Amino acid sequence: MHRTGELYGQFQTMEQQKDSATLGMWIFLSTEILFFGGLFLTYTINRHAYADVFAFASRTITVSWGFANTLVLIGSSVTMAMSVWSAQVGKKKLIPLFLILTLILGSVFLFIKGIEYHDKYVEHHIPGWNFDMYYCTSHAGACGLSPEDFAKEKAELKELTEKVGGETAVNANAQLFFSLYFGMTGLHALHMIVGAGLLLYLILTSLKGRYTPEYNTPVDNIGLYWHFVDIVWIYLFPLLYLIDRH
After folding, report:
1. 108 half-sphere exposure, CB direction, 13 A CA radius
2. What's the helix, strand, coil split of the chain in %, to 5?
3. Which one, 33, 141, 152, 217, has least CB within 10 Å?
4. pLDDT per residue over 154-170, tens digit each?
5. What end-to-end distance do the CA atoms of the chain give, in Å?
C-alpha cells in the first residue's frame, strides 16, 4: 500500500481519510459501550436483588481513593484535550508535553488502583476460598480501622447478618459485589493500560514533529478513546463507591 506523505493510497483527500478513521473509532467505541453496558446491567440486577449486602460491601471501599482517582482522570481528560488542540493548531512543542502529562496522570490512576487492590487483599475481600467479610471485625487491628470504625463496622455487620439470614448469605452476596467490583474496575484498568501504550506511541511520533494541522488523526482518535475510558470511570465511581453512604 503506497502513500503520499500522510495520505494513504485508498483515500483521495486528507479530509476523507480523517473522516473514515474517525468513523471507525466511533464504531469501535460503540462496541465498547455494549460491552460495558452488559456489566452495568448485571450490576444493576444484582444491586436490586442484594441491596443491603451490596451497600455494606461498598462502604468497605475507601471512597477517598476513588474520589482522588476521579480528579486524576478529569485532569487527564483536560491534558488530552489540550494535546489534541495543540496538534490542530500546529503547536508541535506542546503536543508531547500534554501527552506526557496525560500519561503521568494515567499512571497515577493505576498506582492508586493498585493501593486499593492491595487493601482488599489485606482485608480478605478478594473473591475466592480466602474471602471473608468478617475478617476485619474478627481480627482487631488487622485492617487498620480506628476503634470507632471497628465498633461501627462490627455492629453494622451483626445487624446485616441477622437481616439476610446468616454469615453464609452475607459472604456469598458480598463476593458477588466484589466480583463485579474487580471485574469492572479491572477491565477499566486494562483499558487504561492500553491507553498508556497508545500515549507512548503518540509521544514518540510527536517528538519527531509528525502531527500538523493538516494531519493529526491519531492524536484526535486516541483522544476519543481516552475520553471514553474517563467517562466509564465517571459511572463506575458512584455505582461502586457511593452506595448508601451517609
Report:
1. 18
2. 75, 0, 20
3. 141
4. 999 999 999 998 999 99
5. 61
- CB atoms under 10 Å from CB of 223, counted, come to 25
| Residue range 162-220, pLDDT digits in tens | 999 899 999 999 999 999 999 999 999 999 999 999 999 999 999 998 899 888 899 99
- 48-241 folds as Four Helix Bundle (Hemerythrin (Met), subunit A) (1.20.120)
Helix orientation angle between 217-241 and 14-49, rounded to the nearest 10 degrees: 10
Residues with Cβ < 8 Å from 132, sequence gap 6 or more?
Answer: 124, 171
Do 206 and 95 form a contact (C-beta atoms < 8 A)?
A: yes
Rounded Cα gap, residues 115 and 117, in angstroms = 5
Per-domain residue ranges for the chain? 48-241
- The average pLDDT across 72-98 equals 96
Residue type, 33: I
What the block records as the C-alpha cell of 63 is 471512597
In this structure, the number of other CB atoms found within 10 A of the CB of residue 175 comes to: 19
CA gap 66, 68 in Å, rounded: 5
Cα–Cα dist 246/235, whole Å = 19
Q: Which residue has the cell 471507525?
A: 24
- Give residues with Cβ within 8 angstroms of 27, minimum separation 6: none
Record the pTM.
Answer: 0.90
